Structures are given as C-alpha cells and as structure tokens.
C-alpha cells in the first residue's frame, strides 16, 4: 500500500509534539508535586518543632493533658494534619481529632472523618468528639479526649476527673483496635506523672493498630532524628505526608516523637487541575500542530509532486514543462535545478535536431556539388569520345570546363580534409612571425578584381605601427580569404566591404565589415557549425564549411571572435589576436 510522504511527515510531526507534551506533562507534574510536597514538609517540620516544645512542657508538668489535647486539636484544625504523640515505648500519648467543615483548607464532613484511635480504644467510656464536648460557658481544656483521666495541673497536686456527658451514645468499636480482655477497660493516663490509675489497663501502642509495622520500623530506625516520608497511612487509609520530630528534653534525653500526618488530597487535586489545563492546552497545541504540520508537509510535498510530473514529462521527451518555484530553500533549489536541466535538455535536443538537419542539408549540398561537375564532365567527355564535337574551339572549351569542375571537386575535398584535421587537432601550425598587415593587403589585392566585377567597394585600413604576431601565415591567409569571400558572396552590387587592423588593449584587432544582407538572429548561433547555410537560396554558392574552418583557425591561434549582424544592414566580424604567444 502506497503511503503518501505528506502523511508520513504529518505523523512524524504529531508524534514529536505528543512526545514533547507528554514529557512536559510528566516532568512538570513530578516537579510541581515535589515542590509542593517539599514546601509542605518544611512547613510541617517547623510546626512539629513548635509542638514538640509544647509537648515537653506537658512532660515537665507545666500544662495539663486537657490543654495539650486542645493544643494539638487546634494545630490539627490550622494545619489540616493529624498529630500523633508517642512516647519511647511507642504508646500513644495523644492524637488530634479532625474537625469537620471548618478551619484552614478543605474540610471533610463528619461522616467522612476517621475517629481518633484513642477514642475507638475506649469504646463506650468515650464522650463526644472534642469540638462537641464543651458546654456553654465552659473554658477550653475542661475536657480532654473524652476519657476519664487524672490530669495534674501545674501547682495543683489534686487530679481532675473528666466524665463524658451521659447524653452521648457510645462510639463504635474498631475491629483493628481490639486487644483482648482489656478492650473495654477505661484507661486513665497521667503521662506527666508517669502513673496510671488502673494498673490493669494497658496503654494504647502503635503495635495495637493494624498495618503500623512499617511506621514503627521508621521510628526505631530514626530514633532521635527528624525524618519525613510520603506513604499510604494504614489507619486513615489515604496517602499522607508524615513528618516526625523527636521530643528532646533539656537534659538531652529523648522522651518520644511528635508525628504530623498531612493528607495529600489537596496536592493531588491541584495536580488534577494542572492535568486538566495541560490536557486542554495540549489538545489545542495538537490541533494547531496538526494544522501547521499539514501546511508545512503540503509545502514540501506539492513541489515534489510537481517535480515528479516534470521528470515524467522529460522521460516522455517533453522538455518544455517547468516547475513553479516559490520557496528559497533546498526544495526550491531542487526545483530550479530541475528547471535548468529541462532547459538544457530542451536546448540539447534542439541542437541535435538542428545538427541533424544540417547533416541532411550537407548531404544534399555535397551530393549536388559532386553530381553537378561529374554530370558536366561525363557529358563533355562522352561528346568528345563519340566524335560529336570536332570543332577545335569547342574541344578546347570542353577541356577547360572539365578542368574547372575538377578544381571545384578538389577544393571541396580539401575543405573537408582541412576541417577534419583542424577539429581533431591533427594539424600542426607552422608558427612564425606574421604580419597581418601584409596578409590583409594581399587578400585585398587578390579579391579586388572580383569585387570590382560585382560592383562592390573593397577597402582596407591598417593603423600605423601594427606589430607582427606569432602564427601560421598560410592559415591566417586562409582565414582572411574565407571572411572576405563570404562578405563578397552576400553583399549586393553597390555595397561596401571594409577591412580594419588596429591595436587595442594589448591585442591586435582584425575587423571585416560589410553592408550585405546580414544574418538572421535565429541563425547567428549556428554560423560556425559545419555544413550550415543561413541563406538557403544560395545553397549552390558553397558547402557551408568555410566559417567552420575559420573558427578552428581562430581557436588554434588563441584568438577570440565576436559577430554582430542586422538583417538588411550587414555583418561585422571582429577577431582579437593576442600579441603574446598563448598557443
């Protein structure tokens, strides 16, 4: 199945966008979560140290248990964190109770709050939660955790007994906290005095709570150290951040640990909002990326399709098709290169067709040039052999005509041989000092009778002091004869031919100008080709080899040639010979 390059690019772009968005989302969420958890940890650590000082005051007997419990409950409400205080034996000293619906942060309803493990442990002996246990006008600290206990206040040796209100129903018993025969016995804690009223009752230990083994190991492993950890709390059954601070006394001893357990629900909800907004932004980014990718892919594929069509046209032999290039990039460069290739191929094919046409014309011309003298010689020779012509004057004339035709054949064959040798570099020039001024004068003298007979003015103008050049005298004479002879052929009676020889910019310049019929612009590029004849009406006037031979002579002498012509006004050949030897 053929899969378009556009869709490949589109899928690649979209895959990159999705991978980047996923990486940003995952990495950003991890960084944000770590940031907030670390900030929460620092906050809880600071507050835990403050609570540790208050708990030490309780251990020193400066505050009552009720005051301690009210303090941790107030801190719970402010921090939205459950506070556990344990002694060195991992027995619970006090546990805060979450207050529903009020306070700092998001609060749960009373039905969703997990009761204190100490409240569940006391079963029916417990009173209502701390926020419901005060009577109107009662001072804070009148009730502790709802249990009946003796709390020693500073400066007062008499204990206070706190009874739960009779109107409150007993709290349910948590199956995780059942510890045998002591499960229903009331416990009276007097941690500040280190005594218990009922020796038959045991203190509540962390080991009595199901699933706390890992926390116990952490407390033992980090005894006397501050530590923090995020984990799934086995009692509250939710993910929490725990910060534990040791209770260091003034004498350096450790009396226990303060554990602050903060739920991570707020952070998780915040992250969910981030995921939501990132999802919306990501979806918008994906749609925008899809549109942009489709546009970019189309901008790449469309030129390629045009190039494919152009290449297919070139394979069929059509070199006229071009690509519309609109971009300045690698694709645009490729399109321009393909256009240049098509143009070059079109020009090459046109030249091949032109050369083929010239070859056909040459065959026709050569056939005519050979057939005409052969026919004349054959007829005259047959007449002489048959005795048809007996008049001495006619016999002499026939012999003269046959001699002229033989010379024409010899010239044609000589021109073909010369051109072949010149193009194959098989001809060695006889280099010597040659005076172009003398060559020009000789050519004018040789062709003057013909020009006068035709009624064409032929004149030469040689600048004084023109130095000789290095070259082959015979070939340079042949070059001048070809140029002037061509000018005579195509200059009508009354016209003028001028030959100028000057020195310009360190070069010797030979100029042959005429006022003849001129050369058509479409024929001008091909006048140096073999067998080419621009004036088809004058096909019998030559074979089309003269200018081809002339160009080879010019190139062998290291010269440069320039031709300008206008139809009906004439033609100018300008040849620049170097004064220094370059061949």
From TrEMBL:
Q: What SUPFAM superfamilies does UniProt report for this protein, alphabetically?
A: ATPase domain of HSP90 chaperone/DNA topoisomerase II/histidine kinase, HAMP domain-like, Homodimeric domain of signal transducing histidine kinase
Q: What class of enzyme is it?
A: transferase
Listed transmembrane segments: 9-32, 274-297
What Enzyme Commission number does this protein have? 2.7.13.3
Q: Where is this region: Disordered?
A: 118-143, 151-170
Reaction equations catalysed: ATP + protein L-histidine = ADP + protein N-phospho-L-histidine
Localization (cell): Membrane
Keywords in UniProt for this one?
A: Kinase, Membrane, Phosphoprotein, Transferase, Transmembrane, Transmembrane helix, Two-component regulatory system
InterPro entries reported in the protein's UniProt record: HAMP_dom, HATPase_C_sf, HATPase_dom, His_kinase_dom, HisK_dim/P_dom, HisK_dim/P_sf, Sig_transdc_His_kin-like_C, TCS_sensor_his_kinase
Which segments constitute the HAMP domain? 298-350
Pfam entry (one):
HisKA
Residue span(s) of domain Histidine kinase: 365-581
GO molecular-function terms, A-Z: phosphorelay sensor kinase activity
Its cellular-component GO annotations read: plasma membrane
| PANTHER family in UniProt | SENSOR HISTIDINE KINASE TRCS, SENSOR HISTIDINE KINASE YKOH
User: Per its record, how is this protein called by name?
Assistant: histidine kinase
């Amino acid at each position: 199945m053929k899969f378009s390059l556009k869709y490949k690019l589109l899928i690649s772009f979209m895959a990159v966008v999705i991978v980047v968005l996923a990486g940003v989302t995952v990495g950003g969420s991890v960084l944000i979560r770590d940031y907030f958890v670390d900030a929460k940890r620092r906050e809880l650590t600071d507050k835990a140290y403050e609570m540790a000082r208050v708990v030490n005051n309780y251990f020193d007997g400066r505050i009552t248990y009720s005051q301690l419990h009210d303090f941790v409950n107030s801190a719970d409400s402010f921090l939205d964190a459950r506070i556990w205080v344990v002694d060195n034996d991992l027995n619970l000293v006090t546990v805060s109770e979450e207050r529903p619906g009020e306070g700092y942060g998001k609060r749960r309803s009373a039905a969703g709050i997990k009761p204190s493990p100490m409240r569940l442990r006391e079963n029916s002996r417990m009173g209502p939660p701390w926020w419901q246990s005060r009577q109107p006008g009662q001072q804070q600290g009148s009730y502790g955790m709802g249990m009946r206990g003796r709390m020693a206040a500073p400066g007062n040796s008499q204990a206070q007994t706190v009874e739960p209100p009779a109107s409150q129903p007993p709290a349910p018993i948590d199956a995780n906290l059942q510890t045998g025969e002591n499960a229903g016995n009331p416990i009276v804690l007097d941690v500040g005095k280190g005594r218990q009223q009922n020796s038959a009752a045991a203190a509540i230990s962390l080991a009595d709570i199901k699933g706390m083994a890992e926390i116990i190991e952490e407390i033992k492993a980090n005894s006397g150290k501050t530590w923090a950890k995020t984990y799934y709390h086995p009692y509250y059954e939710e993910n929490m951040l725990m910060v534990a601070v040791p209770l260091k006394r003034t004498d350096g001893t450790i009396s226990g640990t303060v554990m602050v357990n903060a739920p991570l629900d707020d952070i998780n909800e915040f992250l969910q909002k981030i995921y939501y907004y990132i999802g919306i932004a990501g979806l918008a980014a994906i749609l925008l990326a899809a549109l942009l990718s489709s546009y970019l892919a189309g901008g790449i594929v469309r030129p390629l399709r045009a190039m494919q069509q152009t290449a297919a046209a070139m394979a069929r032999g059509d070199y006229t098709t071009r690509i519309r290039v609109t971009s300045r990039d690698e694709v645009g460069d490729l399109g321009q290169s393909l256009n240049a290739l098509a143009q070059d191929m079109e020009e090459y094919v046109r030249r091949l067709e032109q050369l083929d046409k010239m070859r056909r014309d040459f065959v026709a011309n050569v056939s005519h040039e050979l057939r005409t003298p052969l026919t004349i010689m054959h007829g005259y020779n047959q007449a002489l052999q048959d005795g048809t012509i007996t008049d001495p004057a006619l016999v002499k004339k026939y012999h003269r005509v046959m001699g002229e035709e033989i010379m024409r054949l010899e010239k044609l064959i000589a021109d073909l041989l010369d051109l072949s040798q010149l193009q194959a570099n098989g001809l060695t020039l006889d280099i010597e000092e040659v005076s172009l001024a003398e060559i020009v004068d000789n050519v004018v003298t040789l062709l003057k009778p013909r020009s006068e007979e035709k009624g064409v003015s032929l004149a030469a103008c040689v600048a004084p002091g023109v130095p000789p050049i290095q070259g082959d005298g015979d070939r340079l004479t042949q070059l001048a004869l070809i140029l002037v002879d061509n000018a005579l052929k195509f200059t009508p009676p009354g016209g003028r031919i001028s030959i100028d020889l000057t020195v310009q910019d360190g070069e010797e310049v030979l100029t042959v100008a005429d006022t003849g019929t001129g050369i058509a612009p479409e024929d001008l590029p091909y006048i140096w080709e073999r067998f080419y004849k621009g004036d088809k009406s004058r096909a019998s006037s030559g074979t089309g080899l003269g200018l081809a031979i002339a160009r080879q002579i010019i190139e062998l002498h290291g010269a440069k040639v320039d031709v300008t012509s206008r139809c009906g006004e004439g033609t100018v050949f300008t040849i620049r010979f170097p004064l220094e030897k370059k061949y």
